[in-house]
Write a structure and sequence with these properties.
alpha+beta; 7-stranded mixed β-sheet; 5-stranded antiparallel β-sheet
Length: 293
């Protein structure tokens, strides 16, 4: 019986990514360092991971390309008590509004519970971010909506777009300047729809490029699109950002593995020299591996 991956987390402010694992009732974590050799082999079928700590009652098989790894019923239950899905309006916790930068022209606004500090930013792969304000949940939500409507700032950026620009990030000063410019525009809205209960926080750019291992050239060529029965992904960890592991492989150069695609599979170890034996897509838009899909 193999281990099931429960995903990649970023609980450490110093930027140590942690992979969660479960086998039966046994739960453990691993924290691979950059330069570590990693290898995974999938077996059998991919099954629903359940909802909010509960096992899927149907043991449903789910699609290999789903990043949620949940059947429709468990997905509904998982979102039934979700701040991100706007299904909770009476959360008493303090929330923070942030501005996050992922690449040139890719800046978004979002909110996170203050107690989580910057973990949410690392989980999304934000290369640079600054806090904008803090206050009750609904005030944070209204501020998020204000920036979307008044400044045209999105609250979501697809992971595919984030991955596509990581190989050629501009310098730290340029990254910081783009966030600073948006912060100034957002702060200028104070008094014109800005909720009174939201306290504005001073600008302070936090740069995660070093934390993610992206402060040098990372020439990413391919991204895994799904795991398959018997499929292997193996290589040397050179960077990690959000849910993504960047693995230098012997077959495809640097490949991005979204760890959300690993959830629901039973996984065993594989030799790091095995390379990649699952469907991948050319991040540069050049097509797919060998016409496999």
């Amino acid at each position: 019986m193999g281990w099931q991956c429960t995903g990649l987390r970023w609980p450490d402010a110093q930027g140590v990514p942690v992979l969660g694992w479960r086998r039966g009732g046994v739960v453990r974590e691993s924290a691979p360092a950059y330069g570590t050799e990693l290898g995974f082999r999938a077996a059998g079928w991919r099954h629903c991971v359940g909802a909010r700590g509960n096992v899927c009652p149907l043991g449903a098989v789910v699609a290999g390309r789903s990043t949620g790894a949940r059947c429709p019923e468990c997905a509904r239950l998982d979102r039934a008590h979700s701040v991100a899905a706007d299904t909770i309006a009476d959360d008493p916790r303090t929330y923070r509004v942030y501005l996050a930068w992922f690449g040139p022209g890719m800046v978004k606004v979002g909110i996170t519970a203050e107690e989580r500090e910057a973990a949410r930013l690392r989980e999304q792969g934000a290369v640079v971010f600054s806090w904008l304000g803090r206050g009750p949940l609904m005030a944070a939500r209204r501020t998020e909506e204000l920036l979307r409507s008044a400044l045209g700032v999105p609250d979501r950026i697809p992971y595919a777009r984030k991955r596509a620009v990581r190989a050629a990030l501009p310098g730290a000063a340029e990254r910081r300047a783009e966030v600073a410019e948006l912060y100034a525009r957002a702060a200028a809205l104070e008094g014109t729809g800005w909720p009174e209960s939201l306290e504005r926080l001073p600008f302070e750019a936090v740069d995660h490029a070093g934390v993610f291992g992206l402060d040098g050239a990372v020439e990413v060529a391919w991204a895994v699109t799904e795991l398959v029965d018997g499929g292997v992904v193996a290589g040397r960890l050179v960077a990690a950002a959000g849910p993504d592991l960047h693995l230098e492989t012997v077959t495809h150069g640097v490949v991005v593995l979204d760890t959300r695609l690993m959830t629901g599979w039973e996984l065993s170890g594989a030799d790091a020299r095995a390379g990649v034996g699952v469907p991948v897509a050319d991040i540069g838009g050049g097509g797919v591996q060998g016409g496999l899909f």
